[in-house]
Amino acid sequence: MELLLIIFYDLVILDKLSSYSNIALLNPTRCEEVLLLGSNCSSFKNNGRKNVTNMETIRLNNRKKSLNIIHQRLNVGHLISHYTTLTINKNSLSENKEIFHQWLVGFTDGEGTFSIVRQNEKWNLTFKISQSTYNLRVLNYIKKQLKVGNINIEKNKKICNFRIRDRSILFNIIFPIFDKYPLLTSKKFDYDNFKKAYFILSDSKLNSIEKDNFIFKLLNELKPIEYISSAWRIPLDTVGAFRFSNFESLVDNTISNFENASKVMSKPWLIGFTEAEGSFYLVAKSKDRLVHAFEITQKKDKIVLLAIKYILHINTKVQYKKSGYYTIVTTNSRAIENIIKYYGNTMKGIKSLEYRIWARAYIKHKGNFMALNHIREKVRIMRKKYI
Prior knowledge:
This protein folds into two domains: 2-235, Endonuclease I-creI; 258-384, Endonuclease I-creI. Helices cover 43% and strands 17% of the residues. The protein contains 14 helices and eleven strands. It has helices at residues 2-17, 64-67, 90-95, 97-111, 136-146, 167-180, 187-202, 208-220, 258-264, 267-277, 302-311, 333-343, 350-365, 369-384, and strands spanning 34-36, 112-119, 122-132, 150-153, 159-164, 233-235, 249-252, 278-286, 289-298, 319-321, 325-330. The strands form three sheets. Strands 1-2-3-5-4 form a five-stranded antiparallel beta sheet. It has a four-stranded antiparallel beta sheet with strand order 8-9-11-10. The chain has a two-stranded antiparallel ribbon with strand order 6-7. Helix 4 runs parallel beside helix 10 (267-277), helix 9 (258-264) packs across helix 11 (302-311) and helix 13 (350-365) runs antiparallel to helix 14 (369-384). It is globular. GO terms for molecular function: endonuclease activity.
C-alpha cells in the first residue's frame, strides 16, 4: 500500500510540473550563496541529500507556448532605425520612452545582471546594474526614468548598484521592456532563465519543494559556448507569426553589411551599450605621437561587434585576443570622424564627458602631441579619483 501511495504521489508531481519544458525533477538542495546567472557557480550545498543521476532525471512535457515564458521578436518595426528622421539626443533619451527603453537594454547588455538569490530558505530575483561611483549619475538617470528601484553605494565607496527586487515591478515594468526589445548579447540566455524562475515562483500549483527543484535545474543549465541571442534571427515575414521551420530569414545569425546590422541593432541600443562598454581614448603611436582611438571589447558575442563595425563604418576586423576576448578598435581618421558625428550630444552618463573631451581634442588639437598628452593626463587624474 505504501508503494502505491508513493507512485501516485510521483504521478501527481509530474502532472503539476509538466508545464515547464526542459526542466528536470531534482532532489531538494540548499544554497545560501548568491547565484548569478551566467556566472561560474556550478555547485550547491546538498546537506547530505542524495544526488540525482541522469537515470533519475525526469523529463517533462513541453508547453512553452501556453506559458509564454520565452518571447521571440515577432515584429521589428518598433526599433528606432538608423534611417529614421527622429532625433536621438540627450533630450529624446529622457523624453521618448521607446528611445530610453532601447538605450536601457543596450546598457544592460553591457553592465546588467539578472540574478537568482537563495537566502534563508527563500528565492529572490534581482535585476541589477553596477557602476563605479565615477558614473553614479547614470544610475540616477535610470532610476528617474523608470520611477522604480533603489540605489546603494557599497562600503568601499567605489561601487554603486541600481536594483529591482520587487516581483510585481519586474513583471509590470522590466519584463515588458526586455520582451519588446530583446537583449542582443548572450545575456539573453540569462534573462530567459530569470523570467522562467519568475513564472515558477509565481505558480500557485507548485509547492516550495517543486519550485526548488525547477530553479536549481535552471541554475544548473549551461549556456552553450556558441550561444547567440534569438534577436539575431529575424524571419522574412515579420508581420505574421514566427515560423519555426522552413523559413527564410532577413538576418540569420550572421552580419555582413550595414543594412542587416541596422535591422537588429538600433541607435539607442548602441548608445547605451557604448556607455557601458565603449572606450574613447588617446593612444601613443610613437614617443612623440598620440592619436585618437575608439574600442569596444566583449568576451563573447562576436556578432555584436560585427554589427557595430558596420554601423560605425569601421574598416578594421573584429579580432580575437589570446587573453580571451573579442575587440573592435580603430584609429583611422575617417572612422573617428564618423564616430564623433554618430555619438554627438547623445550619452547620459560620465562617458558623455569623456566623449566630449575626446571629440574636442580631435577637432582642436589633432596632431599636437603636447596638447593631446596634457589632455590625456587630465582625464587619467579625473578617473583615478574614483577607480
